Amino acid sequence: MNAKRKRTVGWVAFYLFVVVFVLLLLLPFIWQFLTSVKPLKEIAEMPARWIPSKVHFDFYVNVFTKHPFARYLLNSFIVAMCSTLLSIAIGASAAYALSRLKFRGRKALLMIILSISMFPTIATLSPLYLILRNMKLLNTYAGLILPYIVFSLPFAIWLMTSFFSQLDHGYEEAAYLDGCTHFQTFTKIMLPLIRPATFSVGLLVFINCWNEYLYALTFMTKDSMRTVPVGIALFPSNYQLPWGDMAAASIVVTVPLILLVLIFQKNIVAGLTTGGVKG
Asked: 230, CA 20 to 30 Å: which among 8, 91, 192, 210?
């Protein structure tokens, strides 16, 4: 076998591996979608049937007619979007300061900031509940947005600091010579230059907030204030487990996230593959 044929066989094997790997990753999503369009009697059949005998969308109708699912979607969107915007605004400001100000203990401070995100959610649940209860923020959007920001900021600051550190100081010097203030330089010059990091942070924070379950379950006890993960988890009753409704709801909330990732995948990769923070 000559060298050219070996390379061809190698590429074919590589792409086959990628296709199989991707199919394995998509298998749970495919199964959920097929379950959401099966007739009810076929969902519990044993052995399980992959392809439904008849495609129907009754479960998707049930999600919005039997449950206040539109309200859950609205709550999740408001909380996730507000948390994302505030995390980007605060994180970018802090990251710019950390990347440009040289002081003793700067790297240690960055490590401390990053370590905050490593705290397990369950360990902070009780203190946060008491704080929010005393502040009368339970069953309010602010009662979820504030905790989400606290645990999103470390990642945002770390990633944006890395990007700012790689930018040449000449951009700022040129802006100052043109008469820009520090704030104008930050907002009009520096922020557009870290657009990949902004997209990465924004999408990842939004997805984390959209999928968060434990805080939403604990801090939002009113049905009208519940978010999507909690709402889906509470679909089952004492006497019924609506697999079809749950499968349809999971597809409804997952497809928008997949589309967002596909649309902005280049920005996500650019943001995640940035180098380490410079001294």
From this structure: 91
How far is 43 from 30, CA to CA, in rounded Å? Answer: 14
Question: Which alpha helices (DSSP H) does 37-68 contain, by range?
Answer: 40-43, 58-65
pLDDT in tens, 141-164: 999 999 999 888 888 888 888 888
56 φ, ψ (degrees, to nearest 5): -145, 160
pLDDT in tens, 191-237: 888 887 788 888 888 988 999 999 999 999 898 899 999 999 888 87
Q: Residue type at 265?
A: Q
Cα distances from 32 to residues 35, 70, 250, in angstroms, run: 5, 20, 8
Distance CA 44, CA 32 (A): 14
Q: Please say whether the beta carbons of 278 and 253 come within 8 A.
A: no
H/E stretch holding 94 reads helix 69-100
Confirm if 243 and 34 have CB atoms less than 8 A apart: no
- Answering whether pTM is above 0.70, one says yes
> What does each C-alpha distance from 176 to 133, 169, 185, 186, 192 come to in angstroms?
47, 11, 7, 11, 17
